[in-house]
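INTERNAL AUDIT FORM
Audit reference: QA-55
Scope: verify that the stored structure record matches its stored sequence.
Auditor: D.O.
Record contents follow.
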Amino acid sequence: MMALKNDDGHWIDGAGNAVPVKYVGQFDKMSDRVVGKLSRRAKQLSEQLANFKGDIFAEIDSLITEMKALYGEDHRTDVGNKVLSDFSNTLKVEIKVNKILEFDQRISLAKEIIDECIKRWSKGGDEKVKLLVDHAFQVDKKGNLDRDRLLSLRKLEIRDTDWRKAMDIIADSLKVTGARSYVRFLAKDDSGMWRTVPLDIAQL
């Protein structure tokens, strides 16, 4: 894909302006051609990796199914991480399943109770606790709360009934909402050490 063009053949710049070809600089034309060529190749490789990922899970799932059938245990549901190696133990495929954990609406109730605690403690209270709470409830650019920061509040030795209640609500509000599977290939080098086979272009 090269630069966008309108019906008159004018090139469309980043601001949406139609620029006659004669006013497009030589370097801009060369850059457009090279970036377009490389981007097409990148898209093809991305599609190949996506297809490869699908093949990985399909083949390994098939292998696990056959393994269970060999032992007459094919009725069992397969969950969790998987590690497979070749006969010589020089190649390995790892599939790791990470649970997706999110806080439900109860986290807002916990925050209200905590704020009330801090307000009640305002006279002679520890300002560090307030700073820790404010930090724990900060959200990232996507509006998500940091699980580890919030759970770290439960480690604070605060003997207050309402505070402990809020900590219990935080724990109860954390729910498993899904799972992500990650695949990694490893190979032994000449010294016998396992090395990850990089599939991320940034690691090559």
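Auditor finding: record pair retrieved intact. The chain has five helices and six strands.
Action required: none
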